[in-house]
Write a structure and sequence with these properties.
It contains 19 helices and two strands. It is an all-alpha fold and 499 residues long. It has two domains: 2-465, no CATH class; 466-499. A two-stranded antiparallel sheet has the order 1-2. Strand 1 (183-184) and strand 2 form a beta hairpin. It is globular, with a radius of gyration of 22 Å.
C-alpha cells in the first residue's frame, strides 16, 4: 500500500502542466532520434544534458525518460518501413516488420509495435514499482559464467534458427564475431585487426555496422534488381483485425517477460531479449511458414521486449546505481551532476523525485501510443515515395547518422564497405542477423569468458558450475540436435510403415 500511495503522489506531481510538457517534449525528441539511424537516445540525452542544468531535477529526468521510451519505439519506424534500424535494439524488428511493409501491411506492423510498446512499457513500469529491488538483487547473484551462457544461447539460437542453412547462419555469426574483435584487446590492450588504422583502435560501432548491413545493403540489393517492376504498395488499414490481435497478445506478454529482467542485469540491454523473443515466437508460432515472409508475431514480441527492457534498465539504475545501457549511463551522470546518488538509499533520500519519475514513465508511455498509433498510416505512406528518392534519402540519413556517431569521415567508408558485405551476403543467401548479433554480443561474451576463467585460474569447468548454466547448455544441445532427432524419428516411422 505504501508503494501505491507513493505512486499516486508521484502522479499528482507528474501531471502538473509543466511536467506534462517536458514529458511530451521528451517523447517527441526520442521518437525523432529513434527514426534517425546513428543518432541514438544516449547521444540525445548527452547533448541535452548541459541545457537542462537550469531545470529542476524532476523536470529534467521526466524529459530524459521520455526520450528513452520514445527512442525505444522510434527506431522501429524506419526498421519496419525502410529496413533501416534507428537503434541496435530494433534490428530484430526489421526482419519481419519490413517484410510486412512490403506486403502492404506497414500500418499494421507499426500499430503492432506501438501497442506492444505501450503494453510492455506499462507492465514494465508496474514491475518497476513492485519488484525492482528483488530483480536487481537476483541480477547481482549471477556471475560471469551465467552471463557467458546467456550470450552463447543468443549466438546459437539465432544462427541455428535463421536462414535456410545452419552452415550459412554460423558463417554469418563468425563474420560478426570477427568484426566484433576489431580494436583493442579488453585485457592486454593489444591492437587486433586494426591493420595500422588509428580509427579502428576503438572498434566499429554497432550502429555503423547495423546501418551498413541493413540500409546500404538493402539499397544495393534493390538497385541490383532494378529491372524488376516496382509494384505500388498499399498503405494498409490503420487498425488491427481480431485475428492480428489474437496472434499478437501472446508475443506481447512473452516479450515483456523476457525484456524486463534482461534490462535489469549488467550484461543485458535490449539486444539479447529481442533476439530471444524472435526465436521464441518463431518456435511457438502456429504459422511458422509466415516467418521470413512477414509474420506479425516477429514484430510484436521483439518490440515488447525492447520497451520492457527500457523499464528494467531504469529499475537497475535507480535501485543499484548500476547503468545497464548507454542511455542510463548518461542519466546516471545527470543524477551525479545534480548531487544525487542513485542506489538503495535513493528511495529514502529522494522519494518525491523517484516516484514522480516512475509515474512519468506511465504518462510518457501513454503519450507514445496516442501520438504514434494515429500516425501509422501516414508513416506507411513513406513506401509510396519513388524508389530513387527513397533510397537516396536512406543513404543520406545513413551517412548522416554514421558520421554523427564519432564525427569521423572514415566511418562512412567503413559503413559503405559493410554495406557491400551485406549485399554480398544477401545475394548468396546468408542471413545478416547472426552477423549483427556477433558484433553486438561478441565483445561482451569475450569479457565474461575471460573473467570467468580468471576467477577459476583457467579451469573451464567453471562454465558449467551452476544449475543455471547447466540448464542453459542442455537447452542449447536440445535446440541444436532437435532437427536431426525429428528427421531420425520420421525416417524410422517410414521404415516401420513400409516394413
Amino acid at each position: 500500500m505504501d508503494a501505491l500511495q507513493s505512486l499516486l503522489d508521484g502522479f499528482s506531481a507528474a501531471l502538473v502542466p509543466a511536467n506534462l510538457l517536458y514529458a511530451a517534449l521528451g517523447v517527441l525528441i526520442g521518437t525523432a532520434v529513434g527514426v534517425l539511424p546513428g543518432i541514438g537516445t544516449s547521444l540525445s540525452v548527452a547533448l541535452l544534458l548541459p541545457l537542462t542544468y537550469s531545470l529542476e531535477p524532476t523536470a529534467a529526468f521526466i524529459m530524459f525518460t521520455g526520450i528513452f521510451y520514445g527512442g525505444a519505439y522510434g527506431g522501429s519506424t524506419t526498421a519496419i518501413l525502410l529496413n533501416t534500424p534507428g537503434e541496435s535494439s530494433t534490428v530484430v524488428t526489421a526482419i519481419e516488420g519490413n517484410l510486412m511493409a512490403k506486403r502492404g501491411l506497414g500500418a499494421q506492423a507499426l500499430a503492432t509495435a506501438a501497442i506492444g510498446s505501450f503494453i510492455a512499457g506499462t507492465i514494465g513500469s508496474s514491475l518497476l514499482v513492485v519488484s525492482a529491488a528483488p530483480l536487481a538483487e537476483l541480477a547481482l547473484g549471477l556471475g560471469a559464467p551465467e552471463y557467458f551462457a546467456i550470450m552463447v544461447l543468443a549466438f546459437v539460437s539465432v544462427a541455428a534458427v535463421l536462414g535456410a542453412s545452419r552452415l550459412r547462419g554460423f558463417a554469418s555469426l563468425g563474420l560478426g564475431l570477427t568484426i566484433g574483435m576489431v580494436g583493442l584487446d579488453p585485457q592486454t590492450g593489444a591492437q587486433r585487426l586494426t591493420f595500422g588504422v588509428p580509427q579502428l583502435i576503438d572498434g566499429l560501432d554497432i550502429v555503423l555496422v547495423a546501418v551498413g548491413v541493413f540500409a546500404v545493403g538493402e539499397a544495393l540489393w534493390v538497385v541490383s534488381r532494378r529491372s524488376a517492376p516496382a509494384r505500388p504498395i498499399p498503405v494498409g488499414r490503420p487498425w488491427l483485425s481480431r485475428d492480428e490481435v489474437g496472434r499478437s497478445w501472446g508475443p506481447w506478454l512473452r516479450g515483456t517477460a523476457l525484456g524486463f529482467p534482461f534490462g535489469a542485469i549488467p550484461a543485458g540491454g535490449a539486444e539479447i531479449p529481442t533476439f530471444l523473443s524472435y526465436v521464441t515466437e518463431r518456435k511457438l508460432s502456429r504459422r511458422p511458414e509466415e516467418f521470413g515472409k512477414g509474420a506479425i508475431e516477429g514484430v510484436a514480441g521483439p518490440e515488447a521486449a525492447n520497451n520492457s527492457s527500457a523499464a528494467g534498465s531504469i529499475a537497475s539504475m535507480l535501485t543499484l546505481g548500476l547503468p545497464t545501457s548507454a542511455t542510463t549511463a548518461v542519466m546516471l551522470a545527470a543524477f551525479t551532476s545534480y548531487g544525487i546518488q542513485p542506489g538503495p538509499q535513493l528511495l529514502e533520500s529522494q522519494p518525491a523525485l523517484v516516484w514522480t519519475l516512475i509515474a512519468s514513465l506511465f504518462i510518457g508511455n501513454t503519450m507514445l501510443l496516442l501520438i504514434n498509433l494515429p500516425l501509422a498510416p501516414m508513416w506507411a505512406k513513406l513506401l509510396r515515395i519513388p524508389r530513387p528518392y527513397l533510397f537516396a534519402s536512406i543513404l543520406f540519413f545513413a551517412v548522416l547518422g554514421t558520421y554523427a556517431v564519432n564525427a569521423q569521415p572514415l566511418d562512412i567508408a567503413f559503413m559503405l564497405s559493410i554495406g557491400v558485405l551485406g549485399f554480398v551476403m544477401r545475394k548468396f543467401g546468408m542471413p545478416t542477423l547472426p552477423l549483427v548479433i556477433g558484433v553486438i554480443l561478441g565483445p561482451r561474451a569475450e569479457v565474461q569468458l575471460r573473467r570467468a576463467l580468471q576467477i577459476s585460474d583457467g579451469d573451464f569447468t567453471v562454465l558449467v558450475s551452476s544449475p543455471f548454466t547447466v540448464v542453459l547448455y542442455v537447452g542449447l544441445a536440445v535446440l541444436v540436435a532437435w532437427p536431426a532427432l525429428v528427421r531420425a524419428l520420421r525416417h524410422r516411422s517410414r521404415e516401420a510403415i513400409s516394413g
